[in-house]
Write a structure and sequence with these properties.
By secondary structure, this protein is an alpha+beta fold. It is built from six helices and ten strands; from the N terminus they run αβββββαβββααββαα. 45% of the residues lie in helices and 18% in strands. The protein has a five-stranded antiparallel sheet with strand order 3-4-5-7-6, with helices on both faces. Strand 6 (92-96) and strand 7 (99-103) form a beta hairpin. InterPro entries: Kinase-like_dom_sf, Meiotic_Drive_Suppr_Kinase.
Length: 235
């Protein structure tokens, strides 16, 4: 790693990017919006908390900027500290005031792969499984791992977003995605090389989110009923 090059990138970020960048979070469960990005910076992608951009003169790194009022910056820094170096994850080279400079990961998200009709090898799923187990061994809790947050590159799997890996509550998104991969994608979609349009993928995502919330609410109600019944039993 060229420390001098990183230092120049840090200076460029603070002098040319941050003073002009316009980024906002309109709704907590929807991606943030980058309304203005100064030239020659280019957008890599956006998530619910932050946007990711890069400068053509520094193609091996990206800058992740949290939208004002969105949480998670300190937690993400801690996650990268615990992860250290692993081939399926990025690495944090600099973190300050809601922005991180990260090693760039190249690839296509599984979400985009399905839209484009690209073949997703089983090795990709296995790599991500191994990476998530590695995170657990480092005292982390893989959370919010879904099709937009994992990628494939040259037949190998990568985990892009680790910002929620300190959340201890159970998250079934990756297990559900794997189930869909083995039960639906491999036997049906992959052989046909079907391209699923984004509007249909987004509809599936919204339906999944609705039923997930419904399931969580039902589980909460059943848990309360169970606790009340246990209290009555002991009385």
């Amino acid at each position: 790693m060229d420390r001098g090059l990183i230092d120049r990138l840090i200076e460029t970020v603070h002098q040319e990017l941050i003073p002009k960048l316009q980024i906002e979070s309109i709704a907590p469960h929807d991606p943030v919006k980058i309304s203005y990005l100064p030239y020659p910076w280019q957008k890599v992608g956006v998530g619910n908390y932050a946007g990711v951009v890069y400068h053509p003169d520094y193609p091996n790194w990206v800058v992740k900027i949290y939208a004002p009022g969105r949480p998670g910056f300190e937690e993400e820094v801690e996650v990268y500290h615990r992860l250290g170096s692993h081939p399926a994850y990025s690495e944090c080279l600099y973190a300050k005031d809601g922005l991180l400079i990260l090693k760039r990961l190249y690839g296509v998200t599984l979400y985009d792969s399905i839209q484009r009709g690209l073949r997703i090898p089983k090795q990709v799923i296995q790599d991500i499984d191994e990476a998530l187990e590695y995170a657990r061994m480092r005292g982390l809790y893989p959370h919010d791992v879904h099709g937009r947050n994992v990628m494939m590159y040259e037949g190998r799997g990568l985990v892009v977003d680790i910002s929620d890996f300190l959340h201890e509550d159970k998250c079934a998104k990756w297990d559900n995605l794997k189930r869909a991969y083995y039960w639906l994608y491999r036997p049906i979609l992959a052989p046909l090389r079907l391209k699923i349009p984004y509007f249909l993928l987004d509809a599936v995502r919204k339906v999944y989110r609705f039923f997930s919330k419904l399931k969580k609410s039902a589980e909460g109600i059943l848990s309360k009923i169970s606790r009340k019944n246990n209290k009555k039993t002991y009385l």
